[in-house]
Amino acid sequence: MNAPCIALLARFDKKASTFSTPVAAGGQLYIDAVHRAGGVPLLMPPTLDANVINATLTRCNGVLVMGGGDVDPSLYGEDKQDECYGIDNSLDQFEIAVLLAAIALDKPVLAICRGAQVLNVALGGTLIQHLENSADHSGRLHEVEVVPNTRLSQALNGRTSNGASWHHQAIKSVAPDLVCVGRASDGTIEAVEHRSASWVLGVQWHPEKTADEDPVQQSLFDALINQAK
User: Fold this and answer.
1) Predicted TM-score of the model (pTM)
2) Could you tell me the domains of the chain?
3) Which of 60, 95, 113, 137 is catalytic?
4) Do residues 55 and 34 touch, judged by C-beta distance below 8 A?
5) Which one-letter DSSP state was computed for residue 214?
């Protein structure tokens, strides 16, 4: 069987010194994790052209959404707080469009950190713009209690995950089409999945950061590829 192709949602970056124009970039750790799982990651450059999005998704077997900056609060009806950073409304619009199209096509989706937040906003949920205890979620490994008998627990083959956490925002109100399937010990929502789609999962932590040495974190990428086959 041919290796499944995974659309890795890229973003334009002006920092590439060897190019005279912005480049479409994707994180190497995500790419490596997909390769280890037996998939082929294909960078999907940002676009708002629905025809291009649908044509790309039709050719791909799954979608992977990376972490990154904050989602524009106007997209969930709030004013921006001072702690927000890295907002790129055009990137938000692109990722929202892809996620909605992927769900409509019933493609498997793994959305990580910012990706989980975009997924929630795309489906009508809201975010906490700045966690009061954000230091407990930035640059740390912490345990997540996973709801049993969920897609997440099946992917992790258990009820806990000790993943690398690096976020100062989190999901506040869960979108109607999503359900919370994982929380940190302080109650922060750390994972959601779609109620009816075959396999759409968002995790707030960064499994790609430790997947090369932690089989539990790699298992999320393995599950994405298995679903994409």
Assistant:
1) 0.97
2) 5-228 (3.40.50.880)
3) 113
4) no
5) -
